[in-house]
Amino acid sequence: MKMFRLTTISRLLLALLLLLSLGTAAAQDPQYGGTLVFGAESMGDSFDIGFWHGFGGVHVIDSIGEGLVRADFENGGALPGLAESWEISDDGLVYTFHIREGMTFHDGEPVTAGAIVRSMTRPINPDDPSYIEGMYMYGNQGTSNWESIEAVDDHTIVLTLMQPNATQLLVFSRPDGAIISPKAMDEFGTEVGLNMSMAGPFKIERFVPGQEAVLVANEDYWAGRPYVDRVVIRAFPDEAAILAALEAGEIDMTLYAPFTSVPRLQDSDSIRVEVGAPLVNLFAGANVSAAPLDNLHVRLAVNNALDREVLIEAGLNGFAEMPASLIGPLDLGFDEAGRAVSVYDPDSARAHLEASGLDLPVPLEVAFENNRFWPQLAELIAADLEAVGFDVTLDRLDTGSFWGKVGDGATQLSINQRSTFVPDPHGKAILMARAGAEGSQTQHQALEAVGEIDALITAGITTAVPEERAAIYGEFQALMLEEMPYIYIGYLTPPIFVNQRVQDVETYGTAGGRINLRGTWLSQ
Amino acid sequence: MIQYLLRRVIWLPVVLWAVSSMTFLALRIVPGNPIQTIQNQVMDRGQLAEVEAVWGLDRPISEQYLSFISRLAQGDLGLSMSSGVPIRRMIFERMPPTIELAVVSLVISSGLGVLAGVASVTIGNHVIDFGVRTLSILGLSLPIFWVGIMLIIVFSVNLRWTPTNGRIGPGVDYEVITNFMFFDLAVTGNWEAYRSYLRHLILPSVTIGLTSAGFVARLTRSAMLEVMRSDYVRTARAKGLYERAVIWKHAMRNALLPIMTLQGLQFGAILGGAVITERVFSYPGMGTWLLDGILERDYSVVQGGIIFVALAYVLMNMLVDMLYHVIDPRLRTPR
Amino acid sequence: MRRERRAFTRIGAFWRRYDIALVGGSVFAFILLITIFASAVAPFDPMGRNIKNRFAPPSSANIFGTDQLGRDVFSRVIYGGRPILSASFSAVFAALALGMVIGVAGGYIGGPLDTGLMRLMDVMLSFPSILLAILIVATLGVGQLNVTVAIGFSMVPIFARLVRSIVITLVHEEYVLAARSLGASDGHTIWRHILPNMLPPIIVQASAMLAVAIGTASALNFIGLGVEPGTPDWGMMVAEGQRLIFDAPHVPLFPGLVITITVLSVNYMGDGLRDRLDPKLRRQGA
C-alpha cells in the first residue's frame, strides 16, 4: 500500500512538472521550422500499407498518410480526414462520404473521389498494377463485407455494406486505410511501398530501408502545413543505444527508451518525460480448453494471486494504471466496476485453488515474449502464483515461437498486450470473437458462455447507437470478469521521452503507437 | 590449379542447395509460422486464409519444398512475406552495408592482431607479451554488445567524437548507385556525406575489429613461436642472418596461412552474424534483417538471405584456398 | 646486452611456463570452488526479491548493490557461474571431440572423404553461427542444455578445419613421412606423431573458444534466448543489465568483471598447459 502511495505522489509531481512545462510552453506561440528526429524501435523495408509491420513503419505511414477519417484517441470516435463529412443510413448499411475539395497528393495529383475509391479497392482488384498477392493488412478494412463502393461524382463516395459494421468508419483511420495516389500506383506498380505518395501532413523525401525515413512538411496539407520542417524517423533496435542517442542529443523524441531511466532523465536539463494515455492493455491470456486453466477456480485464483501494485511498480516502473477488464478506460462502454474484481487477494486465491479440487501445488506454464519488460513481469507473476500454491514453469519464447504456440493452443497462461489501434472497444473484444475459429488465440470454444460472448460481439458491431453499444460492452465486460479467460495486469501509461525543445506532444495516439506530429513544434 | 578451381566451382551449387534445404527445413521445424505471427493483427480471418494460400502454407511441406527449389533454380527468390518487397531488392539494400562493415573490421583486426602478435614474440619482453595476450583474451571474452555500448558511452555520449548509430547521419542526402557507399559517394563527389559515412563506420567496425583482433594476435603469436623454434629459423639465425629478415621471410609466411583461414571464416561470420553489432549500432545490414526475418518467421527473407550469405562465404573461402596454394608450395604438389 | 636479453627471455620462459599457468589455475580453481559451494558462500538468497530496495548501490549490506528487483547482486554473481560455465565447457568439449575426429579423418586420409567432409563443414560454416544458434534455441526451447547444443554445434566446423589444416602440414613433416615410410600403421602414426604435435595449438584454441562460448552464451541472452528469467547467470545478468548501464551500472558491471576474470584464468591455464605439452619444447630440453 505504501508503495502505491509513493507512486501516486511521484505521479502527481510528474503531472505538476508537466503542467509547469506546459505553462511555459503556452506562453510561447508555436514556431515553424526545425528537424525533429524520432527514435523508433524498427524501420521496415517498405511502407506498403498492405504489409505494414513494426512501429517504425506505422509512424511513417501515420505521418505521411491520411484516410477518409482520422481517429480521435482522446474522446473516441472519428474526426474528418480526406472526407470533410459523412452520413450513415439508419440501417447502418450505406455510407456517403463528402470529399474535401482542392486537396492534392504529394505527387501533385488531385485527391478525387475516384482516386480514393481506386486506392480503397486495391486489395480486391488483382488487375491493378500495384496489386500484390498476400497483402494481409488490408484484412482490417472490412472489404469482404462491402457490397459496393463507387465515386458518385468527384467529391462523393458511396459505400454499401452487406451487414452493418459499427467499426467500419474507424478502420479507415488505420494505417491500412491511408489513401495512395493513383499516379504512384501506376508509376511504381508493386514497388509503390518504396515510393509512397499520399495526402498526409508530411511527405517522404528519402527512405533507407532498415535505417530511416526522412519526411518533409507537406505545404499543401489540407489542415495547413505542420510546424516542423522535417521529421527523421530512425530505427534503434537496442534500448541502451536509443538511450545513448537520446543523451547525446541525436534524437528528440522516442517511446522506446527503457522505463528504468525515467527517474534520472526526469531531472535532466535536456530531456523531459511525458506520460501517455492508458491505451495499451496488459494481460495474461488463459487457455481455457486445457488443464489446469479450463477450471474456472484456477483462473480466478490466478486473478487474485497477482499483486498488481508490485507488478506495476517493479515490472513497469510505475507506468500503468490498475486494470479493470478487457476494455480500456478510454474505450466506449468502459466499466469501472472491473477494478474491484481484478484485485490482489491471496487468501481468496488460495481458497479458489482449494475449491478447484486439484492437487497442490498446481503446475502451470507461463509463456511470454523475450523482449522489453515481459521477462521481468513474468518473473514477478511467477512469484505471485507460487505464493498461493502454483508450481510455475516459465516459458520464454521468441516472437515467432510465442505466437506459434499461442496459435496452436500449446500455451497455458500467456502474457501479452492489446493496444488501441482505433478508439473502439471492438478491437479488444474481437480477441474473444475467435471462439471456435481455427488457430484461435485461446481456445475459447471451451467456455460455457461462448455463445453469449459471440452474440455480444456481433451485437457490438451491428448496433449503431453509441449508448446501446456501450451497454453491450458493459455486459461483455461483466461476462469477461465472470469467466475470466483473461487476467488483467494493468493499462500501460508509457513514458514518452522528449528533448526539452519539443513542444505540444500529443500523448493519446502516441501512447498506443500512433504518433501524431502535426501539432508538435520545436522551440529554438 | 585450374583443375582445383573447377572442382570447387562444381561443388558450389551443391553447397548452396544443401544450405538452402537446411534453411527451409529449419524454418519449418521452428515453432510458429508467418500466419501465426500476423494473425493477431488481422481481424478478417477469411482474408487470412487467402493469404495463407498465396504463401502456399496450406500445402504439404514436400510440395512447398519442391516449389521453393524449382523457383530457386530459376533464380526467383520471391517476395518478403512481411513486407511484399522482392528479396532481390532487399539484398541490394542490406548486403553492401554489411560487406563494408566486414571488410573494414577485418582490416582493423588483421592489422591490430598481427602487430600485437609479432610484437609479443619478437620484442622478447615478457611484460609486453603478457599484456598482448591478456588484451587478446579480453577481446575474445567480452560480449560484443558490451564492447559496443562502452564505446558508444565513451566516444559518442561523453566525448561526442562519433555518432551513436546508423550508416550515415540522419537526413543526409546522397545518391544510391551500387549502394556501396565508399564507391557511390566518391563517384558523385559527395564529400560531406563521405565524412558522415566514415564517422559512422568507425565504432561498429572497431567493435568487431577489437573483439576479433584477439584471435589474430593469438594465432600470429603461436605461429611465430612455432616457426622461431623450428630448425630452419635456428639455422638461419646461426648463419647470422639479420633477425628481422628471418622473421618476415619465414615466420610471417607460415603465420599467414592460419590467419588467412581465420579471416576467411570471420568474413563469413560477420556477413550474416554481425547481428549484435548491427543491433547495438542500429546498422541497416544483413544481420538485423535476418534476425528480424527469423523472429517474424518471414520464410522468404531467411531463405533468400542465407543463400546469399552462404554464397559470399563460399566464394571468400575459395579465394583463401587459392591464396593457400600460391603461398604454400607444399600444397601444390599433387598427392 | 645479449646476455641480459637471454636472461630476460629465460625469466619470461619460466614465467610463461609455470607462474601464469599456476596463477590462472588457482584463480580458476577458486572460482570453481565458489561456484560449486555457492550456497555456503552467498550471503543472501540469489532469488530473494526486495522491491523496496531496488537498484541500491554497493554498500556494506549488499557489497555489489542490488538489481532491478532488489536482489543481492553479490549473491547472484556467486551462483551465476553454474549455468554459463557448464554450458560453455560442455559445448567446447563436445565440439572439440567431434571436430577432431572430422579434421583428422579429412586431413590424414584425404581424397574424396576430405573433400566431402570439408564441403559439409562449409555448409555448416556458411550458415551464420549466431543465427544457427537462435534457430536451435527457438526450436528446442530455452534452457541450458539447448544453449549448449546451439553453441557446440556452431563450433564443430571451426575445430574441424583447424585440426585439418594442422594435420595437412604435419603429414608433410619429415618425421611423419619417415614414420609412414618405415611402415608404421596409420593409427600409430596419428597417435604417436600427429596427435602430440596437434595438441598444443588445439589447447590454445580450445581455451580461446571457451571465451567465445561464454561470449555467445551472453549474446544469446542479449537476444532473449538464454536461461530462464530470474536465474542467476553471469551472461544473463550482463545481457539484461546492458540497458541499465546508464542508470545502475553496478548491476551489469560485476558479473561482467567475473566473466572476464574467469576467461582470463582459463586461458592462462591453457597457455601454460600448452607449453608443457609441446613436444618440440620438450625436445629442446628447455
TL;DR of this structure?
The complex is a heterotrimer of chains A (524), B (335) and C (286). Chain B contains 14 helices and no strands.
Integer-rounded radius of gyration of chain B: 24 Å
Strand order of the largest sheet of chain A: 8-9-10-1-11-19-12
Largest sheet of chain A: 7 strands, mixed
Mean pLDDT across the residues of chain A is: 90
Strand content of chain B: under 5%
Distance between the termini of chain A: 44 Å
Element string of chain B (H = helix, E = strand)? HHHHHHHHHHHHHH
As a percent range, the share of helical residues of chain B equals: over 70%
Structural class of chain B: mainly alpha
- Which term fits the overall shape of chain A? globular
- Beta-strand content of chain A: 15-25%
Extended strand count of chain B: 0
Largest sheet of chain B: none
How far apart are the termini of chain B? Answer: 13 Å
Description of the molecule:
The complex is a heterotrimer of chains A (524), B (335) and C (286). Chain A has 524 residues and is an alpha+beta fold. Chain A is built from 15 helices and 21 strands. In chain A, the strands form 5 sheets. Chain A has a 7-stranded mixed sheet, sandwiched between helices. Chain A has a 6-stranded mixed sheet with strand order 14-18-13-17-15-16. In chain A, strands 4-5-7-6 form a 4-stranded antiparallel sheet, with helices on one face. In chain A, α13 runs antiparallel to α14. The two termini of chain A are 44 Å apart. Mean pLDDT of chain A is 90; it is low at 1-7. Chain B has 335 residues and is mainly alpha-helical. The mean pLDDT of chain B is 85. With 286 residues, chain C is an all-alpha fold. Chain C has a single domain (80-285), classed as MetI-like (MetI-like fold, Orthogonal Bundle). In chain C, 77% of the residues lie in helices and 0% in strands. Chains in contact: A-B, A-C, B-C. The interface between A and C is medium-sized, with 31 and 26 residues.
